[in-house]
Design goal:
Length: about 400
């Protein structure tokens, strides 16, 4: 091989390997290896700086718990490093009901709708978007209620979806659905606390957020999501239950595969960017996953997202232990689906197994091509230095001062 061809090729290889090695994730300035639009790539845990022994210990521990886990999915540096389906009824291709994880998707649709000009601002009053409706129980509090109050569960509504089960007509969420006119039900409902002063979990306000999407764009929440969110991410296997008005339930009932749910988390780790397109506004990603309402030392609330101060994560939670967890510091996404009553042991699993398995934060995960490039770079560097040295030695100007240099 001629030196004139060999040297540029080696230098290019070194540049490529170096740029790949020192890239980091967008939450910390990183750029991913690839976009999982058509599917996730898998990797051994060790290639992404994850200890597989600890993950096996976690799996063994899960089996001792006797709980009905349906899936556990761990993605680091954009690669699936662990995927586990303990329940034989579920696999990689089966959609799972996400329950209230849906709320975080609806929040994103609001952010997109603002960016697209359908909605003015989160400081707009809710009633201003329904000018032709006759609304009951009108009050100064209700007139002051904004979109931000809906997003943060501080709307001030009189609401109770926990005292009675979801099969009981006294449950306010059930009452809303049985009314047949969910939007009107929420608009008519009394607002008994000054908006912004009391936090109260309310799936009805999430439905109202979905109704805002329809009222402003003419698209149902699913139609809007398909156009602006799911299609860019390559998510096409979706089911979202409609309410009696023909609108999808903005606070629940979205069905996705665990891998597609992980794409949503990955989108947020990339600050809303997907394949160079700003799918969710970057500012919205930041604002919606920050603490807006402080609820305690561990969990607080953003815009339909939970913020976990213990894990330094933001999370989407759903009934019966559906969970999407994004931890930017570790470039980590964890998905759980299950059928578990009460509080699942997820924080402990992440604290005791998953984060310790990650060890120190690596510059990035290395795929086989990068390893080859790095190896070639290490081997070729001494050769390149030797060639340059020999050429300088043989140069007629060697040892002479050169004008202009």
């Amino acid at each position: 091989m001629k030196y004139g061809i060999f040297l540029p090729a080696v230098l290019l290889l070194l540049a490529l390997s170096a740029s790949s090695f020192f890239a980091i994730t967008p939450a910390q300035g990183r750029i991913p290896d690839y976009w999982p639009t058509t599917g996730w790539r898998t990797s051994t845990p060790e290639m992404q700086g994850v200890n597989s022994t600890m993950l096996q210990e976690m799996e063994d521990y899960i089996e001792t718990l006797g709980l009905d886990f349906h899936s556990v999915l761990i993605i680091r540096n954009s690669y699936i490093v662990y995927e586990y389906y303990p329940n034989s009824l579920y696999d990689v291709n089966r959609k799972h009901i996400l329950h209230s994880v849906t709320k975080s998707f609806t929040s994103s649709l609001i952010g997109i709708a603002i960016e697209e000009g359908y909605i003015g601002s989160i400081t707009d009053t809710v009633l201003s978007y329904f000018p032709d409706r006759t609304i009951q129980n009108m009050s100064a509090y209700k007139q002051a209620m904004t979109i931000e109050h809906l997003l943060t569960m501080t709307a001030g509504y009189q609401w109770d979806e926990w005292t009675y089960p979801f099969t009981d007509p006294r449950n306010d969420l059930v009452r809303m659905i049985l009314s047949g006119e969910c939007t009107q039900f929420m608009l008519d409902l009394p607002v008994v606390n000054e908006p912004g002063t009391v936090w109260l979990y309310n799936t009805g306000v999430s439905y109202l957020l979905g109704a805002l999407i329809y009222e402003t764009s003419g698209l149902t929440p699913l139609e809007f999501a398909n156009q602006y969110l799911f299609e860019p991410l390559g998510i096409d296997d979706v089911y979202w239950t409609q309410g009696p008005e023909g609108l999808e339930m903005g606070g629940s009932e979205l069905h996705l595969t665990p891998r597609d749910l992980a794409k949503f988390g990955f989108l947020f780790l990339q600050n809303g960017i997907w394949e160079g397109q700003q799918v969710v506004p970057e500012a919205w990603v930041s604002e919606s996953t920050e603490i807006t309402v402080y609820l305690g030392a561990s969990l607080s609330y953003g815009y339909q997202w939970w913020v976990n101060s213990l894990l330094q994560s933001y999370e989407a939670h759903g009934l019966y232990a559906q969970r999407l967890v994004a931890i930017p510091e570790y470039d980590l996404i964890v998905v759980f689906t299950a059928e578990i009553e009460g509080e699942p042991p997820y924080t402990n699993l992440i604290l005791e197994y998953i984060i310790p398995a990650c060890g120190e934060i690596p510059p990035r995960g290395l795929d086989p091509l990068i390893i080859v490039a790095l190896t070639a770079g290490l081997v070729c560097t001494p050769i390149v230095i030797g060639i340059i040295y020999l050429r300088v030695r043989k140069s007629p100007t060697s040892g002479k001062r050169i004008r202009g240099i």
